[in-house]
Amino acid sequence: MAVIRILPIFLILAGVLSSTSSSALVTLVRQPRQMAMGGIGVGLADDEYALFNNPAGLAGQKTRQFRPVNVALEGSLDIYSSLSTVTDALSNFGLGTLNELMGQDIYLRASTAPLITLPNFTVAFIGDAQGSLLIRNQANPTYRIGNMLTYGFQAGMGWSFKSGRRPVDEWRFGLAGKMLWRKGGIYDLSTPEFLSLANDAEGYIANLVGDYGMGFGADVGVQYVRHLDSKGSDLYFGASLTDIGGTRFDVSTARAVPMNPSIGVGWVKNSDFLRFKAGLDLRNLDQETRFSNKLHFGTETSLPLFDIYAGMNQLNLTYGAAFDIWVLRITALSYAEELGVAFHQNTSRRYVLHVDFNLPI
Fold it and tell me: What are phi and psi of 114, to 5 degrees?
């Protein structure tokens, strides 16, 4: 069977260039559909956002679209439940902030990815701003602060090859490149360093974050699609290697984008009334962390005007819904990210609102 023949390729991509160090399981661009579906998007790369997960999926894109507005706002649960406390503490940052924010998971992110899609090709502008603060363990405090700004461009293209008298077997290959500028990152501070931050927050953060650095990265992906029937029901098998070797910047203060070898499977079922999708990904395969932190599962149920999402991201529940009004699409969702190495060691619940304006061209 064709599936048996391609398994060695997936296994090779999954194990290549493994790393012995541990880092946060992060990606450069995560679209709301991906987050609401448990973080999948490697095997089931079937739309223009395959550019960011598995560029081989671009080979299945036949539409022409321009998305001039593509904005997502994201915040952690503590931001919403303790907004006044967090705002007061951050606006008057000092030693008293330590007690006010102890145990609070502060995370804010704003991102945009306007793009142009042509058959087999997508190009996108990337803009991303993240801020976070996490202080834990009052007896022996640990401090983690994040301040990271990224912008740049990414483009990718996919190629499709079909075989057999009936073209039910389809191979897809994809390549993507990116040019990025970034400053800042995520930092673990000692108590003396945090006291310096508390005494002069603006100056300390400016010195910590530094200047923008430029970096170049490349992604590669492969996908096998088995077309099951004439209605468009398909089986997907995919593997990708994003940010090959790690995308690094020419200033030491800018955090590198870690390499992410991933594999995945997906299934799409079409009927007269709805479209159902399900997928399973194993991501960040080179990271030294629990298997559960690499596991992602999700589903999508598409109805007229509505899409409903559900999934598990690192064994944490994700869910959401999207509503289409002609050229406007609004998505609301919730997901949880595991910040620790062990399961449920340090889980952050987050909420996202996304607005997407789409014009056919």
Answer: -60, 140
In which band, very low, low, confident or very high, does the pLDDT at 31 lie, cut at 50, 70 and 90?
confident
The 3-state DSSP class for residue 347 equals: strand
Q: Are 78 and 301 in contact (CB under 8 A)?
A: no
Tokens representing 224 are 């096998």
β partners of residue 325? 328
Contact partners, residue 358, CB within 8 Å, separation at least 6 = 65, 66, 67, 327, 328, 329
CA 74, CA 133: separation in Å to the nearest integer? 15
Q: State the sign of the Cα–Cα–Cα–Cα dihedral 35, 280, 1, 6.
A: positive
pLDDT at 168: 80
pLDDT at 178: 97
Query: What structural domains and CATH numbers belong to the chain?
Result: 2-360 (2.40.160)
Q: Are 109 and 147 in contact (CB under 8 A)?
A: no
> Side chain identity at 130, as an amino acid letter?
Q
Average pLDDT in the 297-320 region?
95
Question: Which residues share a beta bridge with 333?
Answer: 320, 352
User: pLDDT band for position 322 (50/70/90)?
Assistant: very high
Q: What is the pLDDT of residues 177-220, one digit of tens each?
A: 999 999 998 888 887 887 787 777 778 888 888 999 999 999 99
